Structure formats: C-alpha cells, structure tokens
C-alpha cells in the first residue's frame, strides 16, 4: 500500500490479533505492516475462497460457502463476526453453515459460533 493511502484493513488486523491472543489457538492469518494476509500453506486456497465474505476484499459476496473442506481439516467451530461482515455477507455465512448441518452454540448481536455435532 503506498504511503499516505488510508488502510481500511488496519482495524480488522487489530481485531484478529486481539482475538487470536485471547484464545491462544494458531491462526492462518498473517499480519503485515499494512493489512492481514494469508500464510502460505497447502490450505491457503481455502481461505482465499472466503474472500467474498470480507467486505474490504472488493469481491462480490458468494452465493454460499462450502464448509466441508474446513471440516475435513478438523475445524470444529466457526465464528461469524456479524458486524465485521455486514448483514448480507453474515447471512450468507450463517445460512450456508445451517444448511450444511452446523449447529449454533452461541449467538449475540456481534458474533455467532457454530459447531459441528
């Protein structure tokens, strides 16, 4: 990002880092000076598939999300940050999780947590 350009992802980077340190679990997100990136790995493409859910990505929201590859990797919980994603993108995430059998175990205005039964 060129000097002087406003970095709209700075708040997201701070938010992700705060929660990662709070729960102490590994994170696939790699902070850099200007934004949050994805650590190079065999599963990085799965994370890129979620880009349409990120309002700052510049991509159109997806019609849905296939969560099966994440489940195959051993992901057992998914947190949807409603206020960060915005109404339409959050609803896409929630609807696709519910349609694929994920169960809501916590729900609030700002976040929902889904688990695989």
Q: What layout of secondary structure does this protein have?
A:
Layout: H1 10-23, E1 29-31, E2 36-38, H2 44-48, H3 68-72, E3 77-81, H4 82-85, H5 87-99, E4 103-107, E5 111-115
Low-confidence stretches: none
The SS-based structural class is alpha+beta
Number of helices: 5
Helix content: 25-40%
Q: What would you report as the Rg, rounded to the nearest angstrom?
A: 14 Å
Strand content: 15-25%
- Main beta-sheet annotation: 3 strands, antiparallel
Count of distinct strands = 5
Quaternary status: single chain
- Cα distance, first to last residue? 42 Å
Main sheet: strand order = 3-5-4
Mean pLDDT over the residues: 80
Tell me the series of helices and strands, N- to C-terminal.
Answer: HEEHHEHHEE
Large-scale geometry: globular
Count the domains: 2
